[in-house]
Amino acid sequence: MSTRPERNAAIDHIRVLLTILVILHHAAIVYGGSGSWYWKDELIKPSRLLLLFNAVNQSYFMGFFFLLAGYFTPRSFDRKGASSYLADRFLRLGLPLLVYFFAVSPFTIALSRTSGGHPLWPGWADMIRARVFEPGPLWFAEALLLAALAYAAWRALSKGPSLALARLPSNRAMLVAAIAIGAVSFLVRLVVPVGVNVLWLQLAYFPPYVLLFITGCLAAPHQLLERVTFAEARPWTITSAVMFVLLPVVILTNGDAGSFLGGWSFKAAFYAWWDPFIAWGIILTMLWFFRTRCASGSRFTFALGRQAFGAFIVHPPVLVGLSLLARTWTLPPLLKFGFVGATACVGSFAVAGLLLLIPGLRKIL
Fold first, then answer.
1. Which residues contact 292 (CB under 8 A, 6 or more apart)?
2. pLDDT-based confidence at 5, cuts 50/70/90?
3. Taking a C-beta distance cutoff of 8 angstroms, is the pair 4, 321 a contact?
4. How far apart are CA 85 and CA 162, in angstroms?
5. CA 61, 63, 68, 71: dihedral to nearest 10 degrees?
6. What are the residues facing 110 on neighbouring strands?
7. Across the strands, what pairs with 198?
């Protein structure tokens, strides 16, 4: 989520949209979607629509963040040098991670426990004393720190300029990559199924994250992400549409035979390959669409782009608080999801905007 000296309005729009989708993804979990979150409305049954919404999001939105993070890495490294680059990464990623880990996360957990009658402020202190610490969504900052260290090590070992792609990979290369990533994901999930954390990281989803970060690094020197055409995106747009239809078909026709989360089953294999085959098309389509339709920015969109990382950090307590306020409302779950999700998006960006007014925080957020 870093920035470059001359901001690209299209990429700013993408970052804002992805941040909004993260917030809505977690709101969907509250109201019947798949995944884990600080607080869920246990009285609400699983929603097939929100399950599909979350599955599609999961296939690409964090991978897209890794692609963009990789895209800004070579220029930042070359401009600052290794030591300054790593110092900047530890400031802009490590400090928010520490604050979230030791303060925001226990506060959010304590806030979620108020639904059971527990007091908030004493509960927060209790969580800290009990060392109930975890990074929550800031696992992304943890992963980017590891990626920054790996990139710096690679540049030190290679002792040369960053490698570069001269053009976007061919359809054949992307097909081979999708097949290979699906196979690696399937094998990883035999050992670490979806939902199991290793040092707070869901390794089951990491094969495409690693590939997309590397691709972003390779695409940066020739600014390939800013040159995607519709002709390049179209085959994968069609592929994504087919994959979108296939997932519910498999869910409805394959019964309870095996698990999507991992193991030797058709469902696990299908889900492992489904991820990259739907993700490539969504990512390429978004890059083309925002380049051609949202190439110019405004003061408002620039401000939202600056607030995106802050909104990403603060959205858990904002969303949990709003969810708890709405828990007694007698509305259909999907309406609750829409209202609470939209309000959480506005609230998170607003809080991030206020934080950016504090001296010193603009260098971090």
1. 230
2. very low
3. no
4. 14
5. -160
6. none
7. 201
φ/ψ region of 35 (left if φ > 0, alpha if ψ in -120 to 50, else beta) reads left
- R_g (Cα) of the chain, nearest Å: 20
pLDDT tens digits, 156-189: 998 877 788 999 999 999 999 999 999 999 999 9
- Structural contact between residues 260 and 267, judged by C-beta atoms closer than 8 angstroms: yes
Give the whole-angstrom CA distance, residue 365 versus residue 351. Answer: 12
Q: Please list, residue by residue across 31-45, b when 16 or more beta carbons sit within 10 angstroms of its beta carbon and e when fewer do.
A: bbbbbebbbbbeebe
State the residue for tokens 């880990």.
Answer: 101
- Amino acid 324 reads L
Report the alpha-carbon distance of residue 38 to residue 41 in Å, rounded: 10
Structure tokens at 335: 């309406």
Helix (H) or strand (E) holding 321: helix 299-325
Tell me how far apart the alpha carbons of residues 264 and 191 are, in angstroms, rounded to a whole number.
11
Please tell me the distance from the alpha carbon of residue 173 to that of residue 56, in angstroms, as a whole number: 23
User: What tens digit of pLDDT does each residue of 25-40 get?
Assistant: 999 999 999 999 999 9
This model's pTM is above 0.70: yes
Give every CB contact of residue 135 below 8 A, 6+ residues apart in sequence: 97, 100, 101, 105, 141, 142, 200
Q: Which residues, 6+ apart, have CB-to-CB distance to 202 below 8 Å?
A: 139, 192, 194, 195, 196
